[in-house]
Design goal:
The longest helix is centred in the C-terminal third of the chain and has 21 residues. The protein has 7 helices and no strands. Helix 1 crosses helix 3 and helix 2 crosses helix 3. With 115 residues, it is mostly helical. Helices cover 72% and strands 0% of the residues. The radius of gyration is 17 Å and the shape is elongated. The chain has 2 domains: 76 residues, 434 Repressor (Amino-terminal Domain), CATH 1.10.260; 35 residues.
């Protein structure tokens, strides 16, 4: 049985879950920080409920990430994915950025040959 593509709510939820987990927080801890019930955070992360814009802004502020990063992670557009990669690369020093660029170029070349 083919799996249906994730909807925007599920993709935003995964972004929230990823950011929460990266900080070592439980759903309950995040819920307390943003002033909601743990079940609300659970619904956001599962994609059962879309967070209102004001809540997304609050989450982005708490996680110290641009709002667009929570939203862009829900996009499958190549330009959005490239922006996410550029953001990750910007956190590296020059030598490590160069290493990652070479590795990505090599992987893309290998994967393109598989088609």
């Amino acid at each position: 049985m083919a799996r249906r593509p994730a909807g925007i709510g599920e993709r935003i939820g995964k972004s929230i879950a990823r950011e929460r987990a990266a900080r070592g927080l439980t759903q309950e801890q995040l819920a307390e920080i943003i002033g909601v019930e743990q079940e609300t955070v659970s619904r956001f992360e599962r994609g059962a409920t879309l967070p209102p814009l004001t809540r997304l802004i609050q989450l982005a502020d708490y996680f110290e990430v641009p709002l667009e990063s929570l939203l862009r992670a829900s996009s499958s557009r190549v330009t959005d994915e490239a922006s996410d990669i550029a953001s990750m690369l910007s956190k590296l020093d020059g030598q490590n950025r160069d290493f990652v660029r070479r590795w990505v170029a090599e992987m893309c070349e290998k994967l393109a040959k598989r088609k």
